[in-house]
Amino acid sequence: MDIVISSRVRLARNFKKYPFSNRLSSEKAYTMIQESRDAILESPTIMAQEFEYIDLEQKSSLDKLVMMEKHLISPELVKKTTPTGVLLKQDESISIMINEEDHLRIQGIQLGSDIHKTWDITSRIDDLLEESIEYAFHDKYGYLTACPTNLGTGLRASYMLHVPALETTGQLKMILQAIGKFGITIRGMYGEGTEAQGSLFQISNQITLGQSEQEIIENLNTVTNQIVEQEKNIREKLLQANKLKFEDRIYRSYGILTHARQLSSKEAMSLLSDIKVGFELGILKTDKKPVNIYELMVCTQPANLQKQIGRALSPDERDEERASFLRQHL
Amino acid sequence: MDIVISSRVRLARNFKKYPFSNRLSSEKAYTMIQESRDAILESPTIMAQEFEYIDLEQKSSLDKLVMMEKHLISPELVKKTTPTGVLLKQDESISIMINEEDHLRIQGIQLGSDIHKTWDITSRIDDLLEESIEYAFHDKYGYLTACPTNLGTGLRASYMLHVPALETTGQLKMILQAIGKFGITIRGMYGEGTEAQGSLFQISNQITLGQSEQEIIENLNTVTNQIVEQEKNIREKLLQANKLKFEDRIYRSYGILTHARQLSSKEAMSLLSDIKVGFELGILKTDKKPVNIYELMVCTQPANLQKQIGRALSPDERDEERASFLRQHL
User: Fold this and answer.
1) CATH 3.30.590.10: which residues of chain A?
2) From the list B255, B320, B323, which residue is nearest A259 (CB)?
3) CA distance A276 to A274
C-alpha cells in the first residue's frame, strides 16, 4: 500500500557574514543570492550542470504556485516580495530556496519512503555549499537559524502520508496528541497552517536541537511505521465491518470522477483519495492501465491545472477543466 | 419528451342488489365476486379468453405489492382483508378490482398520452359488465358509489407525469393551487396520500358529478397540456441558465447509477429521473441501446425487485440487488 507518498529533508542554513533574511538589505540579498548560485553553478562538479537558477522576482504568481503545489518551494517563499530565488535540480529532486526565512533552505524530495536516500542527496548538496560558504554555526547550539525552532541541526525530515482511514475514524487526532511527546508533529498538505486535502498529511520532527540528524530521522521512522501499520489495520477493519458500504463509497467516487462535469479541487482530492484506497485494496479494478493517483492530485491543483491548459482560468473554468482532465485520465 | 408516462381511466361501479363493500357480508361478497367473474369469463366474447381471475386472498403480500407497484391494483386493495379479487387482461392493459371500496373498479392503463384510446377500451369493458350486471344507478345522480366523491360518472381519468423541472423549481406547488378550481388535482405516484418519487406525479379529475365523461377528459387534457408545456419551458430555461451545472448533475447521476453498490429505492428513483431528463434533452449519450427508464423505475421498486430475484430480501439486500440490477441494465 502506498501510504507513504514521499520523503522530504530540509536543512536551514545561513551565511555567517550576513544578517538574517528579515534584516538583510536588498543589495546584500542580491550579493548573497549570487554567492549561493556560484557555490553550485560554478562548482567544479557535475552539479554545476544539473542545477538551474530560477529568479523568483521574474516569475509570475502562477508559476510560483505551480512550484509550490509540487512542493519545490514553500508557501512563504511564494508570498515574499524581497529578492528571492531557487536553485533547482533538473529532476526536481533538490531545490535550494534562497532568502526565504533563512538564507538557504536546502530541500531534497523523493517519491516513496526511502528517507535515507533523500538525506544522502540533501547532505551532499549541503557539503558542496559549505565548500564556498561559511555557515553561521555555534559550537554549542549548532547551525544558527532565523527562528529558534530550527536551531541546532536545522533539519526537518518529513513524510507525506495518505491516511484516509485514520482521518475518517478520528484516530489521527489522538495520534497527534500522542506523538507530541516524541517531538513529532502532523500538519496539512503544504506544511504549517495549511489544510489537509485528500487525506494527505505531513509528518515531521519538531525538535532540531539536542538530537543528531540520524536520531531525528530514526525517531521519525519509528513513529511513521506505527502510523502506517495503524492505517493498514483500520482499512482492513473498515472493510471487514461493512465490505459493501466500503465498496459502495469507492465505486461512487469512481463513478463521479469519471462522469462529473464540474469538480472543485477539494472534492476532486477527496474522491481521488477514495479511489486510491480502492486500487490499493484491490476493490477497484479498471481495464485501463494503472494511474498514479498522487500525480493526478498534483496535476489538478489550481495552478498546475492552469499551467497545463496554458492560460489563467476562473474558479468555474477550473472546475470544468479539472473534471475534463480527470475523465480523460481515469 | 416523455413527460406523460401513462394514461389511466378508472370507473367505480356497484351492483344494485348488494350493499356497498364496507357493509357486505363475506358470503354475499363471494357471490358478488363470482357474478363479476362470470360477466367477463363466461361472456360470449373474445374477452373471455383474454382475462384471467386472480384471487387476492390466495396471493402473498409480495405478489400483491408487485401488482400495486405496476398500478394494476390500488394500495387500498392490497390492505383489504375481506374477500377480494382482480380480473386481469393478459397484456395488463385492463384490471377490474373486485370488492375494493366499490364492488367494481374498472381500470384501463396505457403507456403514453392517448387517453381517448384508454377510455375506449375501459368503456367497452364497462358495457360488457353491464350486459349481465345491474349497476346501482340514479337518474339524477348517476352511478352510485361508496364514497360521494365518486358519485355521478364514477370516473377518474389520470395521467402519470414526469415533471422534475416543475418539482425542483417549486412551481408544481403553485400549479397545484391554480388547478384546484378546475376540479383537477395532483398526487403522488400511487395516488391519494402516497409520496412522489422520481418526480412522478398523478394528475386527475376530482369532480365526477355534473360533467360528462368527455368533458372530464377534455378538461384534464387542457390542464395537462399546459403543465407539459411549462415543464418543457423550464427544462429549457434551466439548461440555458447553466448548461454545465445541468449536465454535471445528470452525468453525476449516471456515474452513480452505473457504479454504486448500494441504492435505496428513493435514491434510485431520483437518479433515474435525472438521467431520464438527460436522455430526453440529448445531453446524456451512451453507446448502449436506449433503455426505458420508467420500466427500470418500476422494476427496481421493492416488491418487483424481490419478485425478479425470486426471494424475500431484507432492505439492505434490496439496496444491493437494486444497485446490481441497475448496473446491468444501464
Assistant:
1) 4-232
2) B255
3) 5
pLDDT (0 to 100) of residue A298: 94
Average pLDDT over chain A, rounded to whole?
A: 94
Contacts B261 to A, Cβ<8 Å: 244, 247-248, 251
DSSP B77: H
Residue A214 grid cell: 540520524
Among positive and negative, which fits the CA dihedral B87, B89, B90, B93? Answer: negative
Query: Which residues have C-beta within 8 Å of that of residue A66, sequence separation ≥ 6?
Result: A303, A304, A307
Which residues make beta-bridge pairs with A54? A86
Alpha-carbon gap, residue B119 to B103, rounded angstroms = 20
Residue in B191, B195, B158, B202 with CA at minimum distance from that of residue B76: B191
Phi, psi of B22 (to 5 degrees): -70, -15
**Least CB–CB distance from B260: residue in A252, A259, A260:** A252
Q: Best residue in B252, B264, B267, B274 to probe A by mutation, most A CBs within 10 Å?
A: B252
Q: Which three cell numbers stand for residue B285?
A: 449519450
- In the predicted structure, residue A290 carries a pLDDT above the cut 80: no
Looking at chain A, the whole-number percentage of residues with pLDDT higher than 70 is 99
ipTM of the complex: 0.87
Residue A219 corresponds to which cell in the numbers above?
A: 525517531
Predicted local distance difference test score (pLDDT) of residue B286: 77
The confidence score (pLDDT) of residue B169 equals 93
B137: enclosing H helix or E strand: strand B137-138
Give the mutation candidate from B259, B318, B330 for the A interface (greatest A CB count, under 10 A).
B259
pLDDT digits (tens, 9 = 90+) for A152-181: 999 999 999 999 999 999 999 889 888 988
CA–CA dist A134, B98 (Å, integer): 102
For chain B, the farthest-separated pair of C-alpha atoms sits apart, in whole angstroms, at: 64
Residue-level pLDDT at B181: 86
CA distances, A180 to each of A7, A189, A204, A205, B250 (Å) = 20, 19, 11, 9, 47
CB–CB of B255 and A251 under 8 A? Answer: no
**Rounded to whole angstroms, how far apart are CA atoms B215 and B3?**
23
Please give the CATH number for the structural domain made up of B4-232.
3.30.590.10
Asked whether the predicted pLDDT for residue B120 surpasses 90, the reply is: yes
Q: What is the pLDDT of residues A23-82, one digit of tens each?
A: 999 999 999 999 999 999 999 999 999 999 999 999 999 999 999 999 999 999 999 999
Minimum Cα–Cα distance from B249: chain A residue: A260
- Has this prediction a pTM greater than 0.95? no
Q: How far apart are CA A285 and CA A269, in angstroms?
A: 19
Three-state secondary structure readout of A159-227: EEEECHHHHHCCHHHHHHHHHHHHCEEEEECCECCCCCCCCEEEEEECCCCCCCHHHHHHHHHHHHHHH
Provide DSSP, A225-280: HHHHHHHHHHHHHHHHH-HHHHHHHHHHHHHHHTT-S---HHHHHHHHHHHHHHHH
Residue B92, sorted as left (phi over 0), alpha (psi -120 to 50) or beta, turns out to be left
